[in-house]
Specification:
Layout (H helix, E strand, L loop, with lengths): L3 E3 L5 E3 L2 H10 L4 H13 L7 H15 L1 H7 L1 H6 L6 H13 L3 E9 L4 E10 L2 E8 L10 H19 L10 E6 L5 H10 L1 E4 L9 H8 L12 H9 L5 H4 L4 H8 L3 H14 L2
Parallel strand pairs: 5-6, 6-7
Antiparallel strand pairs: 1-2, 3-4, 4-5
């Protein structure tokens, strides 16, 4: 019998090295490195109690054998470090959507038929207008459930009715869209499919999920770099630098001035940042 592992949500599952192998390949590790790391984890599996143990063991292996893949492997947790609140995540998602051809606007107040609504992102593309709710979680194991999907659709219907009945001057919204950095429950996905609420979660849908949207265009957040401190993160956000691709537009002198660090430290940050974009 395989070792039983406690997941982040408290559920139990058997240790499965294929899940490790798959996650490493998604993080950009070579087939050989992914196989070697998952085999190494399997040999040490009796020491693991939970998925956190597996994560840190695998991360340490990657740091020794493939440092760039080690950075990419931390992507999910790097997004959770955008917080503590969800506003930076909303801006990050807006930038991601821009890179896929959407015109976006963040943090709008729109009058619905009944009440006003604060809309996280308005996105326009191909004659469609989306009302996007970003559900941000900064803790492993918290999922967006069906109540979230119901809430998103209810607000969308009120805004859409307001557009139709001219209680606002907005173009008509075509669809509600829920975006979350973790997972959605099966009921949330089932409701979304039934009620025509688009859902983008960490690993849903199978294609064009959040992980894919980021990895496909290397839209990594600056929080993926471990040497960036909390105060430095805030300085970068205040300068509207959220993605690695934005960060590497600066030279070492400019970055040192933004972060109030010496040039060598800035060069080290930029070297790691550039390695992710190769």
């Amino acid at each position: 019998m395989n070792k039983i592992i406690i997941k982040a949500d408290g559920k139990e599952e058997e240790f499965n090295k294929e899940k490790i192998n798959s996650s490493l390949i998604k993080a950009g590790a070579s087939t050989d490195i992914a196989l070697a790391a998952s085999n190494h984890a399997e040999r040490k599996s009796n020491k693991f109690r939970n998925t956190n143990d597996i994560y840190y063991h695998t991360l340490e292996y990657l740091k020794r054998n493939d440092p760039v893949s080690a950075l990419k492997f931390t992507l999910k947790r790097a997004i959770m470090n955008l917080g503590p609140d969800g506003f930076v995540f909303e801006k990050y998602m807006s930038k991601i959507l821009n890179s896929y051809g959407y015109n976006t606007k963040v943090d709008s107040i729109i009058k619905g038929f009944c009440v006003e609504h604060e809309i996280d992102i308005i996105a326009d593309k191909d004659n469609e207008r989306f009302m996007i709710e970003c559900k941000y979680h900064n803790t492993i194991g918290i999922n967006s459930d069906v109540k979230v999907a119901l809430y998103v659709n209810s607000r969308f219907l009120d805004v859409q009715k307001g557009c139709i009945n001219k209680t606002n001057n907005e173009k008509i919204f075509n669809k509600a869209w829920l975006i979350t950095n973790t997972r959605c429950t099966d009921d949330a996905i089932k409701y979304g499919n039934c009620a025509n609420v688009r859902i983008t979660a960490w690993s849903y849908p199978e294609d064009k999920n959040l992980q894919y949207l980021i990895e496909n265009k290397k839209l990594y957040p600056i929080t993926i770099l471990p040497q960036i401190t909390e105060p430095q993160k805030i300085k970068l956000f205040n300068a509207d630098i959220i993605t690695i691709s934005e960060l590497i537009e600066y030279n070492a002198i400019a970055l040192a001035n933004i972060l109030h660090i010496n040039i060598n430290a800035a060069k080290n940050i930029l070297n790691d940042a550039n390695s992710l974009m190769l």
